[in-house]
Amino acid sequence: MLIRNATLPDGRTGVDLLVRDGRIAAVGEQLFAHQSPPTDVEIVDAEGWLLSPPFVDAHFHLDAALSYGLPRVNASGTLLEGIALWGELKPLLTQEALVERALQYCDWAVAKGLLAIRSHVDICDERLLAVRALLEVKRQVAPYLDLQLVAFPQDGLLRAPGAMANLKRALDLGVEVVGGIPHFERTSEQGAESVRLLCELAAERGLPVDMHCDESDDPLSRHIETLAFQTRRLGLEGRVTGSHLTSMHSMDNYYVSKLIPLIREAGVQVVANPLINITLQGRHDSYPKRRGMTRVPELMAAGVNVAFGHDCVMDPWYSLGSADMLEVAQMGLHVAQMTSQAQMQACFDAVTVNAARVMGLVDYGLTPGCHADFLLLQARSAVEAIRLRPPRLQVIRRGRRLASTPPVIATLGLAGRPAQVDWTLRR
Ligand code: FE2
After folding, report:
1. d(Cα 301, Cα 86) in Å, to the nearest integer?
2. Among positive and negative, which fits the CA dihedral 214, 218, 223, 228?
3. In angstroms, rounded to a whole number, what is the distance separating the alpha carbons of residues 189 and 46?
4. Spans of all domains in the chain
5. Which residue out of 88, 185, 189, 215 is catalytically annotated?
6. How many CB atoms neighbour CB 72 within 10 A?
7. Contact 133, 63 (CB under 8 A)
């Protein structure tokens, strides 16, 4: 396959990209200006549209996805009622229904150009039903989507009976990342203890860590500090991710001025989940209501790798969503007020390259030698893609077309005006 005349997220235009054997063989501006292009390949005229590496979701819950309304909806809209509701649903789950819903979500994801997902999977269930279901889904989607699983003790590692044993069993079955939820343990001390135990387990087994951490508006929820400390103590730098970190929104500025350098020093990566935390947080406030997302621009400015995750789609915590990481980026941009050109660009990175780094994806990107995984979007730039959330004209993985969507063009019936409009800005 040869893509001709594309625009890249870094702003380069007139770019050609040649695929050979599922990898990017060459990429550059007008590659074939002085020689004729190969004749044994499919040629795709990108017509100047945006060619991007695939979207990556570094934080999701595939076991709960598309279960909205089962067995009822979350009336208060809080995290805690969501956890209780999920607890009501768990005994009613079947492996068949879990697999079915997860596969449907993966279809949505592929159609939207989302080709890698890190999903937490609840291990607080003696049967490990969700673990077995998602391992089956991982096997089935492997030809077209990278699914990475995190062993997640939803009801608390120390709070839920048997959680540590179940978590180890899940890892034995092939779950590849150690999860946690220290702010949901019974006390702050137990939260800190859970962080220590889980990091030690990860060190022992040579696994990465990705913990739900401080997903609350309580400025005194400081488990991220312990997570950064344990990361350094155990030499886990670069392998640990703190997800949510919403309490940082409410923390004292002086304390944060000490905390962010500690996170950076420990090489802890961060995932913010804007769609979910703008709806879940601030529920105990009257007015003003806090936004409750972690301090994304400040973390980025300090050199911390920050990604945006979707977290939930149609589940006990969130009633909307469509596997569109551009919706996630757009919400992140608004909540964090990241409105400069560089910051909007950074929001696009947060759902592509930064998220790929969190997942540790190998050979991801648009440089020679990388996997031939990319999208063609009906937009002229990364910022325009966030603005329009446009059709994914082509979704390609390993040089193979997985999905395509026709461009959106409206036909106008206005006298004296152009007959067609597509919302992109041509200069
Ligand atoms: Fe989550």
Report:
1. 36
2. positive
3. 56
4. 2-53+365-416, 55-359
5. 215
6. 10
7. yes
* Beta-carbon neighbours within 5 Å of ion ligand 1: 311
Which fold does the domain 55-359 belong to in CATH? TIM Barrel (3.20.20)
Q: How far apart are CA 358 and CA 307, in angstroms?
A: 7
Best CA proximity match to 196, nearest among 241, 234, 246: 234
Distance 107 CA to ligand 1 centre (A): 21
Model pTM above 0.85:
yes
CA of 417 to the centre of ligand 1 (A): 48
Residue 417: the pLDDT is: 85
- Element (H or E) spanning 140, and its range? helix 129-141
Contacts of 144 (CB under 8 A, 6+ apart): 110, 115, 397, 402
**Is 215 one of the annotated active-site residues of the chain?**
yes
Distance 298 CA to ligand 1 centre (A): 22
**∠282-319-406 over CA atoms, to 5°?**
125
Mean pLDDT of the chain: 97
Instruction: Sort 414 into a burial class: Cβ within 10 Å, 0-12 / 13-18 / 19+.
Output: exposed
* pLDDT band (50, 70, 90) for residue 124: very high
Kindly give the distance from the C-alpha atom of residue 315 to the centroid of ligand 1, in angstroms, as a whole number. 11
> Is the pLDDT reported for residue 32 higher than 90?
no
Closest CA to 58 of 283, 242, 278: 242
pLDDT tens-place string over residues 288-324: 999 999 999 999 999 999 999 999 999 999 999 999 9
Residue range 2-53+365-416 forms a domain whose CATH class is mainly beta
